[in-house]
């Protein structure tokens, strides 16, 4: 059945769960990035998520949006490089969509992914099909919107399915951005590391809301 | 054989080198926030100049903070862009009420992070403008300058804009000078062997022995061709021709013509010695002089590096009377200093 809504503290704990899951997945992310990029995505995400834990644990927040914005700021400040900026933007832009909300419902959850994705696309200039995190984010946001779910859990089921499908589809794309672009067609067959991270984040959020 | 690097904790390399740099300035500059260096005294009402980028390319970018140079630098980790909070901390520290010009190399990570830094500055009502340096002519055609990388041309550009910032009355004025300096600065680099990542000792790229990567970027980004190892006299005209052709092909600038005056910068990527730079310079001067191009002044040395990377870059900055005036101003930093005027002047 899953939860209808998440309180501010539940939202915070969900994001701590996400941080733990990403830290655990560091070797997977490192391998994914080593195949296509410079191999620093896993370590960068681990560093970012350790900062997220520090920023969230034992803290009280005024709204669910502030939780996401704190996640974004922690990642941005600790990771550096391009991935710190885009993942930071994902959660900062997403958080702004529910800036004053005291609980997170299905519509709010979809808005977080929708606004976050738009923020990332504006910031990074990536389009669908460029083999980036956008290829997991956009299907996730669209699936969430289409589901028109009544509970936050159902919204997250759709979002996580969309992200997973996007991650899988990124295998058939040719990289055109970042360091991976120099590989051209050699990038076929492997998923983008950023898309892998997005899929893990969405699945962990879904599992928390179950 | 593993490289023997004189470091401590591999993860603290960027922090510790900055601590050393601050000590070298002996009070002239100070450390600010998480990882920035700024001049200790910046006059009120000065239009501020902020540079920055990943560490590991010393002496740029942070080594260009100084008298008649940049007011501050936001420093990233090794080969990584500085996060926005660091950019913001540096911005806040150099702002003296007239706004801040960001001047840095065109790399995706830097652009993303400096842009967010500028937004944070905007929240605090600090006006920021950005001029990107994109001098590497081998990284994209002249019609796609937004895809070009910034390499050694950064040094003459920062020198000129740093001088201009001393008297600039507005951010608009400084921005215009910076755009002009960037437009007139073009570089080409070659690589013979990679540098290493300090934390892991691993090479930054692979290049077959006996090959020269023509047009390769300073992190090993692909160039235009891999050519067999050659002599300095063979390679130098090949490199200069690429720069000259770029001035020709680019509709935004005039071709380099007889009588034009230029600053010629011969840079080592790290391991290439001063001996080699001088041999390259000798040929470059002859080749350009034969075309009637006048060398207004010369810069030499390892100023834009990638650890012990083997390679050189040649940069040409065409100077008019305005830019010559800025060039002739003295400047001083721990890593790059110049007396008033110019040789041959």
Measured as a percent range, the helix fraction of chain B is 25-40%
User: Largest sheet of chain A, order of strands side by side?
Assistant: 1-2
Strand content of chain A: under 5%
Helix/strand-derived class of chain A? mainly alpha
**Which CATH architecture of chain A is right?**
Alpha Horseshoe
N-to-C SSE series of chain B?
HEEEEHEHEHHEEEHEHEEH
- Low-confidence segments of chain A, given as residue ranges, are none
Question: Characteristics of this structure?
Answer:
heterodimer, A: 210 residues, mainly alpha, 69% helix, B: 345 residues, alpha/beta, Rossmann fold, 8 helices, 12 strands, globular
Structure description:
The complex is a heterodimer of chains A (210) and B (345). Chain A has one domain: Serine Threonine Protein Phosphatase 5, Tetratricopeptide repeat (Alpha Horseshoe), CATH 1.25.40. Chain A contains nine helices and two strands, in the order E-H-H-H-H-H-E-H-H-H-H. Chain A has helices spanning 8-24, 26-36, 41-56, 64-79, 81-96, 106-124, 134-147, 152-169, 193-209; strands spanning 6-7, 103-104. In chain A, strands 1-2 form a two-stranded antiparallel sheet. In chain A, helix 1 (8-24) runs parallel beside helix 4. The mean pLDDT of chain A is 92. With 345 residues, chain B is α/β, with parallel strands linked by helices. Chain B has a domain at 12-137: Dihydroxyacetone kinase, domain 1 (Rossmann fold, 3-Layer(aba) Sandwich). Helix content of chain B is 31%, strand content 22%. Chain B is globular and about 50 Å long. The interface between A and B is medium-sized, with 19 and 17 residues.
How is this structure best summarized?
The complex is a heterodimer of chains A (210) and B (345). Chain A is mostly helical.
What is this structure's SSE topology?
The complex is a heterodimer of chains A (210) and B (345).
Chain A: E1 6-7, H1 8-24, H2 26-36, H3 41-56, H4 64-79, H5 81-96, E2 103-104, H6 106-124, H7 134-147, H8 152-169, H9 193-209
Antiparallel strand pairs in A: 1-2
Chain B: H1 13-25, E1 29-32, E2 36-39, E3 48-55, E4 72-78, H2 84-94, E5 100-105, H3 108-123, E6 128-133, H4 154-165, H5 171-183, E7 185-193, E8 211-214, E9 225-228, H6 232-249, E10 261-268, H7 274-290, E11 294-301, E12 310-318, H8 321-328
Parallel strand pairs in B: 3-4, 3-5, 5-6, 10-11
Antiparallel strand pairs in B: 1-2, 2-4, 7-8, 7-12, 8-9, 10-12
């Amino acid at each position: 059945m899953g939860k209808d809504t998440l309180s501010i503290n539940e939202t915070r704990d969900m994001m701590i769960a996400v941080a733990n899951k990403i830290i655990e997945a560091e070797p997977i992310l490192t391998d994914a990035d080593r195949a296509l990029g410079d191999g620093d995505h896993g370590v960068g995400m681990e560093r970012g998520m350790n900062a997220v834990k520090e920023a969230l644990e034992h803290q009280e927040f005024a709204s669910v949006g502030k939780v996401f914005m704190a996640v974004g700021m922690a990642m941005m400040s600790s990771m550096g490089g391009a991935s710190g900026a885009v993942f930071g933007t994902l959660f900062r832009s997403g958080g702004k969509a529910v800036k004053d909300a005291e609980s997170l419902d299905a519509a709010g959850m979809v808005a977080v992914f929708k606004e976050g994705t738009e923020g990332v696309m504006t910031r990074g200039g990536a389009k669908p099909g460029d083999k980036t995190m956008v290829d997991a984010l956009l299907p996730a946001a669209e699936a969430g919107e289409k589901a028109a779910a009544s509970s936050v859990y159902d919204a997250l089921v759709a979002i996580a399915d969309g992200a997973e499908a996007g991650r899988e589809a990124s295998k058939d794309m040719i990289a055109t951005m970042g360091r991976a672009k120099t590989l051209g067609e050699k990038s076929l067959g492997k998923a983008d590391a950023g898309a892998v991270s997005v899929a893990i984040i969405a699945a962990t959020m879904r599992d928390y809301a179950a | 054989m593993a490289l023997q690097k004189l470091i401590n904790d591999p993860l603290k390399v960027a922090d510790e080198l900055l601590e050393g740099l601050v000590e070298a300035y002996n009070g002239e500059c100070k450390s600010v926030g998480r990882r920035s260096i700024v001049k200790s005294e910046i006059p009120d009402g000065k239009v501020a100049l902020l540079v920055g980028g990943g560490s590991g390319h010393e002496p740029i970018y942070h080594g260009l903070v100084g008298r008649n140079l940049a007011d501050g630098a936001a420093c990233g980790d090794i080969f990584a862009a500085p996060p926005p909070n660091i950019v913001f901390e540096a911005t806040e520290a150099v702002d003296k009420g007239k706004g801040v010009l960001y001047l840095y190399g065109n790399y995706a990570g830097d652009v993303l992070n400096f842009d967010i830094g500028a937004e944070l500055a905007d929240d605090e009502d600090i006006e920021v403008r950005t001029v990107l340096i994109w001098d590497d002519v081998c990284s994209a055609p002249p019609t796609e300058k937004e895809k070009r990388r910034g390499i050694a041309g950064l040094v003459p550009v920062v020198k000129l804009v740093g001088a201009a910032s001393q008297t600039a009355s507005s951010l608009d004025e400084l921005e215009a000078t910076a755009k002009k300096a960037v437009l007139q600065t073009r570089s080409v680099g070659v690589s013979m062997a990679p540098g290493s990542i300090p934390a892991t000792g691993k090479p930054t790229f692979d290049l077959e022995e006996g090959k020269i990567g023509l047009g390769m970027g300073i992190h090993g980004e692909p160039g235009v061709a891999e050519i067999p190892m050659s002599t300095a006299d063979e390679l130098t005209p090949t490199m200069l021709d690429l720069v000259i052709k770029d001035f020709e092909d680019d509709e935004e600038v005039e071709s380099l013509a007889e009588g034009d005056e230029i600053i010629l910068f011969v840079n080592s990527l790290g391991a290439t010695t001063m001996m080699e730079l001088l041999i390259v310079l000798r040929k470059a001067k002859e080749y350009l002089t034969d075309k009637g191009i006048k060398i207004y002044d010369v810069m030499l040395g390892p100023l834009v590096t990638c650890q012990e990377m083997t390679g050189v870059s040649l940069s040409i900055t065409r100077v008019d009377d305005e830019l010559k005036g800025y060039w002739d101003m003295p400047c001083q930093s721990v890593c790059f200093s110049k007396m008033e005027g110019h040789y041959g002047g």
